[in-house]
Amino acid sequence: xxxxxxxxxxxxxxxxxxxxxxxxxxSNAAQAxxxxxxxxxRGKIVIGVDGASPxxxxxxxxxxxxxxxxxxxxxxxxxxLGVTLETVPVTASTRVQFLQAGKVDLLIANIQWTQERSxxxxxxxxxxxxxxxxAMVSKQSGIKRWEDLKGKVxxxxxxxxxxxxxxxxxGAVVKGLRNIPESLxxxxxxxxxxxxxxQPALYExxxxxxGKEWNDFELATSDQLIPSPTVIWTRRNExxxxxxxxxxxxxxxxxxxxxxxxDRYGVPADYLKQATAQAQTGKFDSAPPExxxxx
Length: 295
Prior knowledge:
The two termini are about 35 Å apart. Helix content is about 35%, strand content about 20%. It is an alpha/beta fold. Strands 7, 8, 9, 10, 11 and 12 form a 6-stranded mixed sheet that branches. It has helices spanning about 15-25, 35-40, 70-80, 95-100, 115-120, 165-170, 180-190, 200-205, 240-255, 255-265, 270-280; strands spanning about 45-50, 60, 65, 85-90, 105, 120-125, 130-140, 155, 175, 195-200, 215-220, 225-230, 235. Pfam families: SBP_bac_3. Keywords: Signal, Transport. InterPro entries: Bact_solute-bind_prot3 (IPR051455), Solute-binding_3/MltF_N (IPR001638). This is Amino acid ABC transporter substrate-binding protein (PAAT family).
């Protein structure tokens, strides 16, 4: 079965549509929020990032702090605002709560756009990546397609947007765990048949420094599950923050910064190279319009 591609997700738009969206943001300037003012007043921006989850987050054993791709993007935003950066590791179960409660100012994590998320949070419409799911399985499992997961146990992170298609489309028995490491341990221990997470993270697990530990496992298929735009999330009703961050992302694309940092940390860059080439002609992809707030 052919899965959702960039051309069929409904989020990819021509430059005129993206421009219209930005014009809409500008028209909401009167409703500007105070987040950026608060950030500048305290001299620090707090950004939620994934924990040590290569290739996006890398733990520095000397300091115990997480750096890497997402942290570098956060550092660039901080530099543009003239403030320092503080990163806060977030998980699937804490990230939305941290943003809504004001514990972080932005989320730069592997959180793809979904209708449900767009009803409770806001986001910069220009994606900074496009990521889908992959299924890591035992080489002896016989699982070679998403359809082969019917009746099988698929482990995902709690709150994962992969849970619904796995269950509804492919008939898998979905088991939510706290994070990717727990899911992989469950896979190795035999309590799940597949570990389903974002493709770059599982690719890194198999081919990174500790790849030899996973010689008996593989990605079931190269066909990614619901590839979706990865966006930077803000709180609702933060028009000025949203517009500022969107302008930064577009600049990252025009200058090639995203490709540079992706290559530096081993983040797959096929989409980023395509989006960068497009940006240099003045065209940008856009996530779907912000949904009506959930009551």
